[in-house]
Amino acid sequence: MNVTVRKSQIATMKSFDNLFIDMTEKFCNQRCKHCYIDFPQFKKCEDFIDIEKIADTLNDLKDIDIKCIYLTGAEPMTHPVFNAILRLCLKKSSVCVCTNGSFINEKKARFLKKVEDESENEIFFKISLDHYYEIKNDDIRYRGAYRHAVFAVKHLLKYNFNTIITVTNYYNENEYTITEEISKIFSDCVQQPQIIINRVHDKTSDVSDDITEQKWSRLECEYGRTLNAEGIYACPFLSGDYRGRCGSDFKDYSTQIPLETNFCVTCIKNQHQMFGINFKD
């Protein structure tokens, strides 16, 4: 009997630019159709990471020149001590808040600007907005999501935050059209947001056919690691997934990861980092 053995490709860290902190793995105020997170159907999981664990991690990484810390997860701004964690992380490096924008109004934006002014580092924001038509966007997310995201971006731009709109191309539309139409929404703003378009993660993709021979340019796991309440993982996609576990803490963690999941397929095909900011360009 002939047996076909497939050997996974290995991704190795090239530099430690990005530290992702999963503020919560499963707690979110939205249930988006395309989200890669498998949420519990009937209950909310208040699985917030302890600020003490973050403080210990930053101490372990005191000699690493991290370019940016990302507060991510399901919805990071639901964390009960979000503001304290933000201030703590700003002592180490610049911070990027990856959010759906529903917790940001003008008062919050003004407060966050004060927090940024207290630090030598910068706060970035990555706001999710998946379509330039309100109805199409809200069909993916929830009724009102479009207006929450647009208002959040406009408030952040008003206070001169470096703001990035992340689009998950759910409808597989022309990227040039998406960029042009979203830019029009913010044409009345003095500052313009950056727009990044990502592929939709296909949970049903067949790993065996797609991953063994694929070439890539930049993978998230080559330039960072993810911290959550349980330990260290290769990337936000694999946070909490045993296939992406790299260790318990940053005293001893793996800098290599086998590319063996359909999340890896999505990252490879995307052709640019899906979560982090490319500080090399």
Could you describe the 3D structure shown?
This protein is of the alpha/beta class. It has one domain (9-270): TIM Barrel, CATH 3.20.20. The protein contains 8 helices and 11 strands. It has helices at residues 51-60, 82-90, 106-117, 134-140, 145-158, 175-185, 207-210, 262-270, and strands at residues 9-12, 18-24, 68-73, 94-99, 123-128, 162-168, 194-198, 224-227, 232-233, 245-247, 256-259. It has a 9-stranded mixed beta sheet with strand order 7-6-5-4-3-2-8-9-10, with helices on one face. Strand 6, helix 6 (175-185) and strand 7 form a beta-alpha-beta unit. The longest helix has 14 residues, at 145-158. The mean pLDDT is 89.
- Whole-angstrom Rg: 19 Å
Q: Outline the biggest β-sheet.
A: 9 strands, mixed
Write the CATH architecture name.
Answer: Alpha-Beta Barrel
The top-level CATH class is: Alpha Beta
On the 0 to 100 scale, the average pLDDT is 89
Which stretches are poorly predicted, pLDDT < 50 over at least 5 residues? none
β-strand percent reads 15-25%
Q: The CATH topology, please?
A: TIM Barrel
List the strand order in the largest sheet.
7-6-5-4-3-2-8-9-10
